[in-house]
Each structure stands twice: as structure tokens, then as C-alpha cells.
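[agent] plan:
  1. take the single chain provided in the ticket
  2. run structure prediction with default settings
  3. attach C-alpha cells to the ticket
  4. add a short note for the reviewer (M.T.)
[agent] executing step 1
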Amino acid sequence: MLIKFDKMQALGNDFVMIDVRANELCREFIPTICNRNYGIGCDTLVLYKQQDSEIFADFFNPDGSEAEICGNAARCIGLLMKKQNGVLQFTLRTKKKSYPIQVDKDICVNMGEPSFDPEEIGVPENVTSEFMLKKLNLPNDVYHASCISVGNPHLVLFCNNILDEGKMKSLGTRLENNSLFKNKINVSFAHVTEKGEIDLTVFERGAGLTLACGSGACAAAAVAYIDHIILSKKILVKQRGGKLFILIDDNLNISKIGPASHVFYGWIEL
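[agent] step 2 finished; step 3 output follows
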């Protein structure tokens, strides 16, 4: 069976995009496709279909688990629709939310208003920052912790310093699988610079450390603004793969603006 795909990336966060209208794909093949040694290789597999001015998409991690949304992949979908159909404005629909996307020189995704609803995040009620700092046995470098959903759940840890990669891997693995989070969780390590920017590294649920995470950038910026760590509504988030601008309006709707690129297309035999 031959499956046509597009390989795309946004800030080094890479994706395999498959149009399910033309390809029937069994989920058992997802880990193979995502595998960098035996398949194409990617941080996230995106299965999508277009219906008029709407794109319906599902997102899968390399371990085969399903994610609610991937912010960087959403920008790649925007670029793909422009390349394939000349569409510059449309709505991306997932199982839980809708995201307006506008394609210009960069791509803007309106992620909507973040949620602190414990049920949506997948945590017990009354989980405060102080509770997490103690309960999760976090390092002394971490001075603030917050759980937030921007379509998918994130634990954002604000650190006095940029943690080394080994510590982030170890801590990310432990926190992702902590019993406090019933749906597991993405772990964002954030450091606010003297310029009021955020240096960010995200340990993504089901994928590990990645070069960039769009939803993680939104989560970190939202927590920084709402909890008065940063006062500006326009926040530059810097990750190893590149930079994103996060805009927060008066109603706390979050938009993220950044690039995406098409790497190649091809066919994989399964």
C-alpha cells in the first residue's frame, strides 16, 4: 500500500501530513511512519481533510497516542492549504476546538482563550502553584508552576535559570507520567530574560524534548501574562528551533505568529 505524504516543519518541529481523502491509513502504522530510522520520521503525524473552507485534522505523537492540537503543525497546515489550493484564510477544526488561520508572509493561528479548568487539563481541583511546587518535588530553580490548557494540557514551569538538557529530560519524563495528570501532560520549561522575553524548551507528551512547540509557547506566554510575570500583551518566545510572537488581546484570546516551510513530498510503502 502506497501512502502519499508531505513533510513539513515549523521552527524545526517536523510533521508528516497525510490527506485522508486520498489515503486510508490504519493507526497501527503511525509509530512506523513517525520513526526516524524505519519510517519517514517526525514529531507529529497529521491526518487531515478539507471540506470547503474548513480543514479537519487529527494529530498523533510518535508513540501512537493522539494529541488534541499541535500549534506548529497548525501553521504548516496553513502553508499547505496555500500551496495546494491558494487558500489564505480558513478554520482548522479538531475534535474539541476550532482555530481560525490566516496566511500571510508568516502564518497566524488564533488559539482562542486558554483554560484553567481542572477537568479540561486533567488534574484534580484546587491544584495551585504552591501545591505543585511541593507535591511534584520540583527543583529549587523552579519558582512558579501553573497548569493550563490551550487546546492541549501544559504544565508550565518558570525557572530562575535555563535548565540543562539532561535535567529537562529526566524531569520531563517524570512529570509527564505523574499520576496527578490523568491524561499525561506537556511540560514547558520557561525562563524570562531581562528583556521580558521567554526562553522556552518543551518536553512534549509522547515525543520528548523537541526543537519547538507552538502550543507550549502559547501556554508559557499566557501564564506569564495572566500571573503578572510579564506585563506586555506581545511576547517573544524563543526556542531552539526559532522564534514565535504571541499576542494576547483584552479577552485573553491568544494568537501566535510565525513561519512554516514545506520540506518535501513523497510516498511511503506500508
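[agent] step 4 note for reviewer: The longest strand covers residues 2-10.
[agent] ticket updated
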